[in-house]
Amino acid sequence: MICQTVKKGIDCIFMKKSGCGYNGGKCHPIVDKCEGCGRIEEFPSGKYCSVYPDPRIKWQNHSCNFATHVKKESKASKTTLNALKASKRRAAGRI
Ligand code: SF4
User: Fold this and answer.
1) Are 16 and 24 in contact, with CB atoms under 8 Å apart?
2) What is the mean pLDDT of residues 7-12?
3) Residue range 5-32: mean pLDDT, rounded
4) Does residue 40's CB lie within 6 angstroms of at least one atom of ligand 1?
5) Using CA positions, which residue lies closest to atom 6 of ligand 1?
6) Cα–Cα distance for residue pair 95/51, rounded to 1 Å
7) What are the pLDDT digits (tens) for 19-77?
8) What does pTM read for this prediction?
9) Taking the mean position of all CA atoms in its chain, how far away is CA 80?
10) Is 37 in the pocket of ligand 1 (CB under 6 A)?
11) Can you point out the beta strands (E) in 1-95?
12) Sign for the pseudo-dihedral over CA of 62, 68, 69, 71
């Protein structure tokens, strides 16, 4: 249904005939760590995330996995790549 609380006009899964079903009855504004993210939407009521109703929770224990402004480190894949290179070098007799 279409939101009638803080993100008026947006189609939302939490909006019911009885009102917003999300915890607290409305979405929560973005937090400082969200600044720069491409998923921020501005409304007359403030800035909100377009994909998650409570950004504070997304940042509680780690970086938000939906954030567009945070580079993810891929140590595991880098290690795998190096292991592959090492294997090829070993096979070629260069080690
Ligand atoms: S996707 Fe994450 S970082 Fe971006 S606005 Fe939403 S909660 Fe904040």
Assistant:
1) no
2) 92
3) 93
4) yes
5) 49
6) 49
7) 999 988 999 999 999 999 999 999 999 999 999 999 999 999 889 999 999 887 666 66
8) 0.73
9) 26
10) yes
11) 15-16, 19-20, 40-43, 46-49
12) positive
Single-letter code of the amino acid located at 36: G
Domain ranges of the chain: 29-92
d(CA 85, CA 95): 11
- Look at 19 and 80; give whichever has higher pLDDT: 19
Cβ-proximal residues to 31 (8 Å cutoff; 6+ apart), any chain: 55, 56, 59
- Cα 18 to middle of ligand 1, angstroms: 27
> Which of 31, 33, 37, 42 is the pocket-test mutation for ligand 1 (most atoms within 8 Å of CB)?
37
Pair 79, 72: CB distance under 8 Å: no
Q: Is 43 in the pocket of ligand 1 (CB under 6 A)?
A: no
